[in-house]
Amino acid sequence: MSVGIAEAKRDRNERRRGLLLALPSFAYMILFFAVPLVIVLVYSFATRTSTGSTSLSDWNLDAYRKLGEPIVRNVVLRSVVLALVTTAICLLVAYPFAWFCAHQRPVVRNMMLVAVMIPFWTNFLVRNYAWRLLLSSGGPISSFTEAIGLGETNILFTKTAVVIGLVYAYLPFMILPLFASIDRLDRRLIEAGRDLYGSGSQTFRKIVLPLTMPGVIAGSILVFVPSMGAYVTPELLGGGKETLLGSYIVTQFLTARNWPVGASLSFVLMAVMLVSTIIYFRSGGKNL
Amino acid sequence: MNAPNGSEEKVTVAVSLRGISKLFDDVTAVDSVDLDIDDGEFFALLGPSGCGKTTTLRMIAGLEIPSSGSLQIFGDEVGSLPPNKRPVNTVFQNYALFPHMSVADNVAFGLRMRKVDKSEIADRVQQAIALVRMSGMENRRPNQLSGGQQQRVALARALVNRPKVLLLDEPLAALDLKLRQEMQFELKQLQREVGITFVFVTHDQEEALALSDRIGVMNDGRLLQVGTPEEMYDAPADRFVADFIGRSNFLKGTLESPEVVCLANGQRIRVPLVDAVTVGDDVQVSLRPERVMICDVDTAPEGVARLSGIVENETFLGNSVIYRVALDWMTVEVETDHRPDVERHHAGEHVDLWWRDDAVAVVRP
Questions:
Q1: Beta carbons of B83 and A195 less than 8 Å apart
Q2: Which of B63, B81, B143 to mutate to test the interface with A (most CBs of A within 10 A)?
Q3: In order of start, what are the domains of chain A with their CATH numbers?
Q4: Chain B residues lying within 8 Å of A287, measured CB to CB
Q5: Could you tell me if B76 and B198 lie in one domain?
Q6: B139 partner at 20 to 30 Å CA-CA among A264, A281, B18, B234?
Q7: Euclidean distance between CA atoms A175 and A169, whole angstroms
Q8: Residue of A191, A196, A203 to mutate, testing the B interface (most B Cβ within 10 Å of its Cβ)
Q9: Which pLDDT value is given to residue A3?
Q10: Are residues B62 and A202, on separate chains, in Cβ contact within 8 Å?
């Protein structure tokens, strides 16, 4: 009996100490994440005055109504397509790599995973400028294609360049969850599939893919979401020729000085991502 | 299928291994194994872990490709065929049931892969599930089943395909003792019912003795001896076999003639006719503890082999008593029944040990 009481007390103390330790991160999240979010939400209901400032006195849904206009719809559509293409390419590149990596000796696999992370040690902006150099009309890639007789290539400032840049930027986010779920896959299940008359591709489709689906979905979310809102890469490598969601939002805030529209678009974008992620986690994909 | 001409009357060979070896990097896992497993047989590959028995099974399944040798299933060379092209199915250790599929989908998997008719699949799945007494559990997921139930599903998943040979990799190892004994019985029953050749791998000698028609004992990648459980116990050809199946004393000696061994103490004993060892070789005489008689000095019957010694210690086990008897050149373990009509001996007593000539086996050292 007394042991039980002592244990309960220790449990309570443990919880209290845990809360205390988590307090700084809670405070940080509230201050720099929740509060700005609320501000964005509030501004999305505000009105743009004729001088370009924002009036908070008159709350309405005008900014949300504006999201239905063809201009915005086209921007969203373009961004969705671009993000889907980026996600698909990441998936196709990352899956074989993660598979290979998961089947190596521990030393080799750790080295491979570190290699995946290395680009993060360089500033994102610098890496984008590096791609600009690589893709430019006088750059290495163009010189190479010219040398082998394919003529010079002008990839820079095209959609292709943007996709290349985005795939490059977000590939690690696809590889890591895929690696985790492939690594967890019991190899004997593959053998059982083959033993039960499944060919290699049948076994992949019926056994391997369904069982690594948590990794596929997690990786896809991690690539798709930032690709949707990407700003730096489309600006630097796409040359801002085609307006994407990220730059459209920036334009609304900085150039058009229409804060309510920028805020409402940001908020809707985030809400859609959040809801789809939650739906995924609810539908049994908990074991990430 | 295409039985070799002239052997129609004889038993059909289900699996035939000729000089099968498997190397992993530079390690020889299986060392030129020759083995014929008959159609309809319950065959056990027995040996300690790492002896190559599982690798041998995996080669038959097609999960490993032999480094050399010939592997035939019902006369067809299958050595390099992938597993999905072989008429065999495997019950994996820990079962390897597909966790994202129901029991019924697990069982139907093999038939679906082979594009069997939908209505036929439904019938056969139903039958297979009934065969392993799992009816009513079709919609459960593997993680909702107990170990014994998972075992049954794994059996159904393999048997539904009507393989020519069923391979079982330590099928009962993951079950607790009581369940294991139950499943042993069921497995034997099942094999009789379906009449399919079963090849199973185990490290448990009792399981091998209880289940199989014939046993092959492996050690260090080599197949040491193949025979019925009785042959393996009564006439082991190899010291390892005698030691691995049951317990035994090993008396060192030299084979003087096919029926006489000169023991290390100079004494000559008669042994059952030996043909596995050549005359003049060093041999060991395997003497099972329960086949040695123990008696007071000079009370052994006339004309039997006997040794004199002193009881070193005795261990009472309820239904039996184990004596360790010290001779002047070795120690012999003796097991006697514990019954009112069997004389008890005690530590320090001088005793004689004796045995019938046919109670021993001469083994390679």
A1: yes
A2: B63
A3: 68-282 (1.10.3720.10)
A4: none
A5: yes
A6: A281
A7: 12
A8: A196
A9: 61
A10: no
Q: Among A186, A199, A210, select the one facing B96 at the smallest CB separation.
A: A186
Q: Do B186 and B159 belong to one domain?
A: yes
Instruction: Mark which of B203, B234, B265 sits at the end of a domain.
Output: B234
Query: How far, in Å, are B184, B196, B326 from residue B189 at the CA level?
Result: 9, 12, 46
The CATH number of whichever domain residue B297 belongs to comes to: 2.40.50.100
Backbone phi, psi, residue B258, to 5°: -55, -15
What residues in chain B have per-residue pLDDT under 50? 1-8
β-pairing verdict for B320-326 and B360-363 = unpaired
Distance from CA of B49 to the nearest CA of A (A): 18
Q: Are residues B348 and B214 in the same domain?
A: no
Whole-angstrom distance, CA of residue A74 vs CA of residue B118: 47
- Domain region containing B74: 13-234
Residues in chain A with CB shorter than 8 Å from the CB of B83 are: 191, 194-195
Say how many domains are in chain B. 2
B88 contact residues in A (CB cutoff 8 A):
195
Q: How far is Cα B212 from Cα B45, in angstroms, rounded to an integer? A: 10
Whether residue B37 is found in the same domain as residue B74: yes
pLDDT mean values, one per 10 residues, chain A (288 residues): 70 84 92 91 88 82 88 92 96 97 94 90 89 87 84 84 94 94 94 96 96 92 91 88 88 89 90 83 57
Given this model, what pLDDT does residue A283 score? 67
ipTM of the complex: 0.84
**Given an 8 Å threshold on Cβ–Cβ distance, is B90 in contact with A193?**
no
Cβ contact, residue pair A188, B94, below 8 Å: yes
Residues B358 and B335 in one domain: yes
Length of chain A: 288
Q: Do B259 and B127 share a structural domain?
A: no
Instruction: Choose among B227, B242, B198: nearest CA to B35.
Output: B227
Mutation test of the interface with chain A: which of B90, B161, B164, choosing the one with the most A Cβ atoms within 10 A? B90
Do B262 and B219 sit in the same domain of this protein?
no
Do residues B119 and B156 lie in contact, with contact meaning Cβ atoms separated by under 8 Å? Answer: no
* End-to-end alpha carbon distance in chain A: 40
| DSSP tag of B92 | B
| pLDDT (0 to 100) of residue A2 | 58
Residue B3 falls within a domain, yes or no?
no
Q: Are residues B19 and B120 both part of a single domain?
A: yes
Bridge partners of B295, per DSSP, are B352
Judged by CB atoms closer than 8 Å, whether chains meet at A196 and B157 is answered as yes
Cβ contacts of B82 on chain A, cutoff 8 Å = 194
Residue B192 inside a domain? The answer is yes
The span from the CA of A30 to the CA of B25, in Å, is 57
